[in-house]
Design goal:
Elements lengths: L1 H15 L3 E3 H4 L1 E4 L6 H14 L3 E6 L2 E9 L2 E10 L2 E10 L7 E3 H18 L1
Antiparallel strand pairs: 1-7, 2-6, 3-4, 4-5, 5-6
């Protein structure tokens, strides 16, 4: 019985200590009321992103590219596309964040979750 408890505890600990998130956690689709125009959504994305230290560059009329640089060669580049009533985060590239296939360091997912929460708060 002790071996089973030890095994379960060990597996739980290893799972809890994971440092990566799956792609579904870092490519995020969010919706807001359809009464918001793309310009209002863009402004909320840019304002809240800059407040969180993202370097933002408008690339098209319906998307921005944002870079979060945490130093020592570690960064993430994300595309945020938007339209009436929605916006999407898509990780384009990262360095030093353990991006491999469909996983990336959980810190990136945390950044996106916080940024998303800020956008939602600003628009709702």
């Amino acid at each position: 019985m002790k071996k089973i408890i030890t095994l379960v505890a060990t597996l739980f600990f290893i799972t809890a200590c994971t440092t990566t998130s799956r792609v579904s956690d870092y490519n995020r689709h969010s919706e807001v009321a359809s009464t918001y125009t793309p310009a209002q959504i863009r402004d909320a994305i840019i304002t809240t992103g800059k407040a969180r230290k993202w370097q933002i560059q408008e690339v098209t009329k319906d998307a921005v590219i944002a870079k979060q640089d945490i130093g020592k060669g570690r960064y993430a580049v994300t595309e945020v596309s938007y339209g009436r009533g929605h916006y999407d985060f898509k990780l384009l590239k990262s360095e030093g964040l353990k991006q491999q296939g469909k996983s990336v360091h959980r810190r990136y997912s945390h950044w996106i979750r916080l940024w998303n929460d800020d956008i939602q708060a600003k628009l709702n």
